[in-house]
Amino acid sequence: MKKEDLPKILPVFPLSNFIIFPRTTVPLNIFEPRYIKMIDKSMKSNRIIGMIQPKKTGDLKKPDLHDVGCAGKITSFNETDDGRYLIVLSGICRFKILDEVNNDNLYRECLVKYDEFSSDLSEKIQEMKFSDLELIFKNLKGLFQKQGYEINWKEIEKQSLDQTINTLSMASPFSLEEKQVLLESKDLNLRKEKLEEILNTYILDNFNNKTLQ
Question: In the structure, what pLDDT confidence band is assigned to residue 210 with cuts at 50, 70 and 90?
């Protein structure tokens, strides 16, 4: 997909502790009436929506939004007997919000630009050695086990390295702010560094907790 094909005005789905990256896919269970309406409208047009994390500021019903999110295309759509939508969203390109658009819809729309993240649309994948990831894997496995998360590591290890880093960034039990840092990391090497930094703080915390007891 070219940058010109991406909508300038994007319906946004604010979801806390949830990020997606280009070339990753995520299943979503849609049940709130306003987002059912958003998906209805999107399915009739380009099927593109923006995932964005809300901040902890602003109105409870209308929180402030982080500046950077990721646009995704609905690639699978099913309706359940009780009126929910089960969709699969495929990440396309990250965006930056320029302004919020006042509309009569129940859901929110934003004027966005993709310029800073146009590299998301290129097919070129950054080279990275799997050995670079081994320590991250080891530390993450420990963290996931400690937090009671289940991950199919064998499946992840089959992915390309960029998919692996992005999948782990998305699935990790990190805070909203930490996930936002990973989402906004310009490229893969920077994301890998940030992932290591975040993990080191968790490992340090665990170490300190053990020594204090």
Answer: very low
